[in-house]
Design goal:
The structure holds 2 protein chains of 2 kinds. By secondary structure, chain A is mostly helical. In chain A, 73% of the residues lie in helices and 4% in strands. In chain A, helix 1 (2-32) packs antiparallel against helix 10 (246-266), helix 2 packs across helix 8 (193-219) and helix 9 (226-241) packs across helix 10. The radius of gyration of chain A is 19 Å and the shape is globular. Chain B is α/β, with parallel strands linked by helices. The longest helix of chain B has 16 residues, at 171-186. Classes of the chains: A mainly alpha, B alpha/beta.
Amino acid sequence: MDIFLQQLINGLTVGSLYALVALGYTMVYGVMKLINFAHGDLVALSAFAGLTIYVQIFGEAKSSLFLVLGVFIITALLIAVVGVLLERLAYRPLRMAPRLSAVVSALGASLVIQNAIMLIWGPNMKIFPSNLFPSTIWTVHNVVFTFTQVMIMGVSAVLMIGLYIFINKTKMGTAIRATAIDQDAAKLMGINVNRVIMIIFIIGSSLGAVAGLFIGINYRGITFDMGWMYGLNAFVAAIMGGIGNIPGAMFGGILLGLFNAMISGYISSEWAQTFTFVLLIVILIFRPTGILGETIAEKV
Amino acid sequence: MSENKILLEIKDLHVSYGAIKAIKGIDLHVNKGEVVAILGANGAGKTTTLRTISGLLRSNSGEILFNGKNITKTPAHNIVNLGMSHSPEGRRVFGTLSTEENLLMGAYILKKYDPKTLDWIYNILPRLKERRKQLAGTLSGGEQQMLAIGRSIMSNPKLLILDEPSLGLAPVLVKVIFKAIKEISKSGVTVLLVEQNAKAALKLADRGYVLELGKISYEGSSEELLNSKTIQEAYLGKKK
């Protein structure tokens, strides 16, 4: 039972990170029908950029939560700008091209960002300082929580609830949903589709940036190619939940995190990745459009 | 007629899909307050003409003037802001949004939707009010058409463009739809209508154009068109 509860906490932590990253994949897919393969690399870029910002700008100051919040905000803004540029340079020129061209462009953009990180920060692992968050640890019935884990779960939950309200309850959110359904019809409502796409990239990239920083703070070691691993897991999570579906990405991320943690706890962490794909295959056999991905019958 | 009576004017419009010429130089105009019908067979270029007017397609040459302003190169979403609304062929309602959310999207360009317009739409198309909370994708074809029309007048447009509003509907629903269009026209909205149901369209319209293979082959008042032998044989199903 102790193992179960401990892995539940670990699973929710990593699951929250997957969910944040998965939202970026699913929102871009929902509107543009494009898998933004460079999204995982934005997560990695965020970890490196955030580390530099912390060390360079705030390095001498004593770490405080307020200061860390500043690092999060600056990094998220920076990555949002990179995300918007990525769309302008790699995807917008191919908006009318066959989908395969855009996929190739996405893979190319992924390599460009990965290599840019390697050129700027070098090929070796960088280590996050351990003092960004207090090293407080709570133990409840033999289950250990760190301050960082609580922050990851809490901040992710707030961001996801905020996003859910924005998408479902606001005019701009409804316009985003409308654009995802039918771009031409959205234009006829007066919706500026380019602006919607820009907003999608801003939101997706900033959520990814938050995840990237949390990964650095929680696991400490970051490498230029780490975006691939997190990107792949988050992408799988988005598909499990139903790609294009926002609650699906949240659910898929948490589910995958929990599943991974349970496999690691009860079987072996070596096998976690293998079982991830077994789970994906099983889900797709029974729910080809993902767990929450429903296709409603269109009346003709 | 004086210039400022004209709401929409099209001069020598040419549109192609790649190498295929769909519209080969058409001129037409719509006066303020009028209902104008464009008739024609499948593939004549009716939908292409409408999509070019509302900015979804780009013309190769020619001019489109709306309310005196050249909109030939204006993006579709900005044209809506000028007071033109286009209810597209095939209804194109947002299936996973509720009926009311669809209507509110119709008022996207307004800071806040006009509750009077919404009430008025619920009044002339009461079925929409009953289906308010229902997802648009689960409505019947006729209800979706009602929704498409309602959605397109939520922005209080000057010109309403309707593409095949009666397509695929049962006769009883066609009546409901045409009655609603008549109400909209009476409220002062100018209407440009593409229809295969030529008889119903001409009954409603003041004037009509007949489009054949990308060119206007005939134009005149609705009465003239209804009484013309050629039109009767080709579009009104009367035997020689």
